[in-house]
Structures are given as structure tokens and as C-alpha cells.
Write a structure and sequence with these properties.
Blueprint lengths: L1 H8 L13 H10 L7 E5 L2 H10 L4 H5 L3 H28 L4 E5 H7 L1 H8 L3 H6 L1 H4 L2 H18 L7 H5 L14
Parallel strand pairs: 1-2
Helix pairs in contact: 5-10, 6-7
Length: 181
């Protein structure tokens, strides 16, 4: 870590994209380096999109979950418990340290700032955000929804109620949409 900090201090602006970092680690970094100009952007993503991505990996979740309903629901529940814990910690960090952390939904960036998201992600971010709607079956979505129901309430996602809702490209399955532009 010291090597990375030394390199970062030598630069005017440094950005690090890190996936699967738990908020406890972010909280410790903010506490330790609170005199620095550290800023953190936390992207929240719909767990159905995360699970769809994991299921698409050839040697990973695809084999494990394609027909194992209970395993899919259990893994979704574990994922959402971790995400809910991280979201709660992020809110605490925002309360105690308002400047260093910004929390935003990935789908909001995808929907409202396509140019910026395409630059960051180098691909069609809207398609990525909602790919799960086309590639997961209604049954798979319901299993993920069941495992993530508590997280959805906390973070503002809605379960999919029908095949028709799943097929509707204008239904974002969110209780609130935040306009960023």
C-alpha cells in the first residue's frame, strides 16, 4: 500500500478503479488518509445484473447456477447482504466525512450520462446495465429477487412482478430514479 500511496502523491490526479472492494476497507483508508485529497465514487449496481454477469462466466457461475435454483437464491442472498452492509457503511462514511465519498447507481450513470459512462466503461453502458433483463429467465430473476428482497428495500430496487415487466425496456425496477443531468 505504501508504494501505491507514494506513486499517487507524485501525481497531480490519480484515479483507481477497483472492483469488489468492501466499504470497511474504504472506511479505513479514508480514516487513515483523511488529510489527503482522497475521493471515492461508489457505484451501486442492480444485483440481477451482477448475477447475470457471474452466470455468463464459462468456468464459474454458469455451471454452478444454470439449473440449481436454490444455489442461485442463496448466492444472491449472500451477495445482497454484503451489498446492503456496504451501502450502510457508505451512508455512515457520508455522514461522518461528507466530501470523500459519492454514492451513485450504475444504472443512473447509464441512463442519464451515457457519454460519460461510455468513456469510463468503454462500452455501451445502458446495454450492460440492463443485459440481465434479456439473458436471465423470469424464474432466475425471481430467485435473485427473493434472495435480495431486504437489500432492494434498503437501496431502492423493486422485484420483477411478471414476465411482462421483465420484457418492458422502460421498466427500470427502481422505486426512485435520480436525474443526474
Amino acid at each position: 500500500m505504501a508504494m501505491f500511496i507514494a506513486r499517487c502523491k507524485a501525481k497531480q490526479l490519480t484515479a483507481i478503479k477497483s472492483i469488489l472492494v468492501r466499504m470497511k476497507s474504504v472506511e479505513r483508508a479514508i480514516e487513515k488518509y483523511q488529510q489527503s485529497d482522497l475521493r471515492v465514487l461508489v457505484l451501486l449496481r442492480d444485483p440481477r445484473g451482477i448475477m447475470r454477469s457471474r452466470m455468463a462466466i464459462k468456468d464459474g457461475y454458469n455451471k454452478k447456477y444454470r439449473n440449481e435454483d436454490e444455489a442461485l437464491r442463496i448466492h444472491s442472498e449472500m451477495l445482497c447482504k454484503a451489498m446492503a452492509e456496504d451501502a450502510q457503511i457508505a451512508k455512515e462514511i457520508q455522514k461522518n466525512h461528507p466530501n470523500p465519498i459519492v454514492v451513485v447507481h450504475y444504472e443512473d450513470i447509464a441512463n442519464y450520462t451515457k457519454t460519460a459512462a461510455s468513456y469510463i466503461y468503454r462500452r455501451d453502458s445502458v446495454a450492460t446495465a440492463y443485459n440481465w433483463k434479456k439473458s436471465l429467465s423470469f424464474k432466475q430473476v425471481r430467485l435473485i429477487d427473493e434472495g435480495c428482497k431486504d437489500y432492494y428495500k434498503y437501496i431502492g430496487y423493486e422485484p420483477v412482478g411478471s414476465q411482462q415487466e421483465l420484457s418492458d425496456p422502460n421498466n427500470y425496477h427502481r422505486t426512485t430514479l435520480i436525474t443526474l443531468i
